[in-house]
Amino acid sequence: MDAFTIHTGTAAPLRRSNVDTDQIIPAEYLKRITRTGFEDGLFVAWRTNEPDFVLNQPQYAGASILVAGPDFGTGSSREHANWALLDGGFRVVISPRFADIFRNNSTKAGLLTVVLPDADVEALWAAVEADPALPVTVDLQAEQVTYGDVTVPFQIDPYTRWRLLEGLDDVGLTERHLDDISAFEAQRPAWLPRSLPA
Amino acid sequence: MGQTLAQKVYESHVVRRTAGEPDLLYIDLHLVHEVTSPQAFDGLRAAGRRVRRPDLTMATEDHNVPTLDILSPIADPVSRAQVEALRRNAAEFGIRLAPMGDRDQGIVHVIGPQLGLTQPGMTIVCGDSHTSTHGAFGALAFGIGTSEVEHVLATQTLPQYPAKQMSVTVDGELPPGVSAKDVILAVIAEIGTGGGQGHVIEYRGTAIEGLSMEARMTICNMSIEAGARAGLIAPDQTTFDFLQGRPHAPQGADWDAAVAHWSTLHTDPDAVFDREVHIDAASLTPYVTWGTNPGQGLPIGASVPDPAQITDENERQAAESALAYMGLTAGTPLREIAVDTVFLGSCTNGRIEDLRVAAALLAGKHVDASTRMLVVPGSVAVKQQAEAEGLDRVFIDAGAEWRGAGCSMCLGMNPDQLKPGERSASTSNRNFQGRQGKGGRTHLVSPAVAAATALTGKLTAPADLEMAGV
Ligand code: SF4
After folding, report:
1. Which residue puts its alpha carbon closest to atom 2 of ligand 1?
2. Mean of all residue pLDDT scores within chain B
3. How much is the pLDDT for B468?
4. Does residue B407 line the site of ligand 1, with CB under 6 A?
5. pLDDT value for A198
6. Is the pLDDT assigned to residue A90 strictly greater than 90?
7. Residues B270-307: pLDDT tens digits?
8. Does B109 contact chain A (CB < 8 Å)?
9. Tell me, what DSSP letter sits at residue B193?
């Protein structure tokens, strides 16, 4: 996973709530067995059917920060949604509320999710609609979003922040505790089920 | 202070706890399917890692499998490659797989309980958001992404933080024709698709205690549609009776030890929930969704809502775009909405009881000429059981299509899809735009409403059938 410290880019205003992972990437793209190359599936239904969909507008073509309404990433656990956003050039998604699994997957894939209150999202939408070229900076070190003369703080749990700043992958971290895992396994009740054919 | 059921299960699986870090949680059962696992196995291979506990891991093929002609190779080359990747990975890493054609094959959340692998007090994960289904047994079960699948394969653990606790209490008696599906659709309509975010939901109350295991699974299944990663129900005699004698259930002295432990798995009287929701079972009627998220549901007697009446700006915009997508006009009675397709199946409502309810309504009648009905059992075992009971004949005689087991039209990764503009009444769990096929329009319903709708061609409650002369 790539480390995330500070990112400056332009932002695309996605004025929609309840953007589910089926919209971020539909099931047909999930048949692939690779981990990259999902950009063609990103919001494909809206990109195809809605000429004025925000990502079809040339002024937002190079955006790397997506600013969405509440309940972003609801639905399926598909990490392909996070990969598709990364493959589509996004490093950050900002929303008043994320679905838990989507947010969790983001921290594994290196996509930063930033929770801002509705009013701050509304203000950011207005700012980038007024000036699509407005640079927006998301600083994970300082835990703040900056654009124009506005600075908005955000919160993230310290452990996730540390992992993202260092670009560390979880499996390696957990493998430091294999002794604890073995000790736990030694005291599990013998009657717990095993999957081997009964 | 006492603990909730979910807290008890969680705490008993903490391998390691250190301030400033997430807990390391042990996972008792890891279910795997073809869609969310190939990149995880690739990750293991790239790092030279093995699967730590193949004996606590079980794989099946479900999302891509065709429901017709299931013994031939899958025609779609991309689907076939994905299924073949799972077969290779299972063989290479020594994981038990129930492939197409196997008697244990089926939707991952149907086969776990059916085999008795799902038991009270366990932690269960799968790269699939409807893993919450297994919570019906008093297990802490939740969906994970592919990176976490890799993590569990490698370490049999997951870094986790304790969730907030929510209770949904449903007291009283459900009116005739009202089922578990209606209960959960009503809950989601009440608390919204983000209402359970960050929480585990415990379903309690006399109406829940009165439900069968299958009905409990329907409720826990859709916890994720309310934003909660997990939902669970305290195990009781109904749970034990369901499990006893299943292939992986404990036996003899082990059974007694297990039941003694399972009997301790309930929320303490002085435990505190962060949020409590109460629902009066007697007030419920069959629910159907009108929009494009599962929170957009209403009693079937209602009409399509008018977005102009909705005060919350986000909700209003969501309703407007939902109506545009669904091709519906505000004020139309839900009962007047005509459907092209009825889908009976999925991990929400593809179990034997669901098929029985639908078959009882269809017996001796015929699906409306304007409508096709697809019946897809959740697993091969459900299919065999239904055939042993003669339900397949009931469906076929009624003009429905009797198919092989799998996810099918729940998400249309196989050929079972809606065409653009087609409208379905579906017993699955998601009415998202395009979920059942590009441009397809989905109304979520219970199995009873699905069957009644198939008979009339319009959204119909079972109680309406007599009046409709069907
Ligand atoms: S039946 Fe539908 S919801 Fe259930 S696992 Fe399959 S695709 Fe997912």
Report:
1. B410
2. 97
3. 79
4. yes
5. 61
6. yes
7. 999 999 999 999 999 999 999 999 999 999 999 999 99
8. no
9. T
B70 touches chain A (CB under 8 A): no
Helices (H), B313-370: 313-326, 346-349, 352-362
8 Å CB contact of A177 and B198 = no
Mutation test residue for ligand 1: of B34, B62, B105, the one with most atoms within 8 Å of CB: B62
Interface check for A73 against chain B (CB to CB < 8 A): the answer is no
Half-sphere exposure of B240 (CA within 13 A, CB side): 13
Instruction: State residue A1's pLDDT score.
Output: 76
Q: Residues of A95-109 as b/e, b for ≥16 C-beta within 10 angstroms?
A: bbbbbbbbbbbbbbb
Helix axes B38-47, B77-93, angle to 10 degrees: 40
Helices marked H in B106-164: 108-115, 146-155
The token duo for B68 is 């017709």
Tell me the residues of chain B between 298 and 357 that have a Cβ less than 8 Å away from chain A. 314-315, 317-318, 321
Closest CA to B167 of B256, B279, B87: B279
Residue B1 has pLDDT above 90, yes or no: no
The whole-angstrom separation of Cα B394 and Cα A104 is: 45
Nearest CA to ligand 1 atom 4: B347
Report the pLDDT value the prediction gives residue A197, as an integer from 0 to 100: 72
Please say whether the dihedral angle defined by the alpha carbons of residues A76, A82, A87 and A92, taken in this order, is positive or negative.
positive
Element (H, E) at A12: strand A11-14
CA B138 to chain centre: 16
Q: What is the pTM of this model?
A: 0.97
Asked if the model's pLDDT at residue A183 lies above 80, the reply is yes
Look at residue B383 and give its three-state secondary structure.
Answer: helix
Q: Which residue of chain B is at minimal alpha-carbon distance from A70?
A: B314
Q: Is B410 in the pocket of ligand 1 (CB under 6 A)?
A: yes
Residues of A in contact with B125 (CB under 8 A): none
User: Which of A75, A69, A91 lies closest to A30 in space, CA to CA?
Assistant: A75
Q: Where does the pLDDT of residue B470 fall: very low under 50, low under 70, confident under 90, or very high at 90 and above?
A: confident
Given a contact cutoff of 8 angstroms between Cβ atoms, the answer to whether B371 and B344 are in contact is no
How far does the centroid of ligand 1 lie from the alpha carbon of residue B145, in Å?
A: 15
Handedness of CA A79, B321, B417, B447 (dihedral sign): positive
What is chain B's length? 470
Contact residues, chain B, for A105 at CB < 8 Å: 145-148
- CB distance B63 to ligand 1 below 6 Å: yes
Distance from CA of B173 to the nearest CA of A (A): 30
Beta strands, E only, B91-183: 96-98, 123-126, 140-143, 157-160, 164-171
Residue B71 has pLDDT above 80, yes or no: no
Sign of the dihedral defined by the CA atoms of residues A57, A60, A64, A65, in that order: negative
Residues across chain A: 198
